[in-house]
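Exercise 7.
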Amino acid sequence: MSVPLLDLQGQYRPLRDELLAAIARVCDSQRFIGGPEVEGFEREAAAHLGVAHAIGLSSGTDAILVALMALGVGPGDEVITPTFSFFATAGCVSRLGAAPKLVDIDPRTCNIDPAAVEAVITSRTRAIIPVHLYGQCADMDPILEISARRGIEVVEDAAQAIGATYKGRSAGSMGRAGCLSFFPSKNLGAFGDGGMVITNDEGIARAARLLRNHGAEPKYFHKRIGGNFRLDALQAAVLRVKLPHLERWSAMRRANADRYDRLFAESAAADRITLPARAPDRVHIFNQYVIRVPDRDAVRAALDAAGIGCEIYYPVPFHLQECFAPLGYRRGDFPAAEAAAAETLALPIYGELTDAEQREVVGAVTRAVA
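Solution. The predicted structure, written as tokens, is:
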């Protein structure tokens, strides 16, 4: 039995008529930029996440960029980020002329290590970007305490974590701003790219709305240099259909994660597979289910040969990326991130995954690590 890493058909088919009707509604209106669909989705997302403002944007990458621009981050500034994340986390910092200040990760959760943050703060530190990796929130209380004590902004990269919570608070709602992605593989996925900044800060919300439209207010009068970072009305209409199902879909992923945990614990390879850690006081949405195995690349090759979808998130930490060589980091600087890059492997976790498919995955992994 082949099992894909992600199969969106199971989610799409029950909603097909409603989704096509939403797209037709936009086509009939001929309102493709801004308008009632975008405004409606922003209101509904803000209410769902318990924040005052939600600003629809063109991608999760642009959400990070806009949040940093709204804070005025620029040349001469430093922004602290974990070295282990999707490229956009550090890439957006560099695009603004600021310097990513990298730190290691918690080896259990693969999220930023709060204990490493304070040691790299300098007079030039403007912001900290904790990443809620794989769908589980970083340990936010220590980071927020540093933020308050040192006067440093917090921008949450919650691209993989919409619906996750930390001590009852939504991912993205705890810092000055939070950044979401609606890439199709996310728990709440669009039919293309899309993103959002969420915030309880009126000033950040106002700046994000201005920046997403070339900094113009009114039209052709530019208060700031922004960009074209707008969320398409077609994507907003799709997301409005999907949003009411988000909690159920995330619960389905958690149920599949529970089943994986049980099956792996019962397998002959239980002592050679490290399962995803679930930190206390957090709701994990399992955008990815990531195990750690010895000889990971050989295991991946075996799964590929068996028709089992899998992926590496992420094979090269930022400090070892060619484009960041001028930052001066070297191999060995961040051992926990380097170990994660060598050992982690994501398995299929989408909500519609069946018991039989999961047993096939577990069997293939067990044979590969034997």
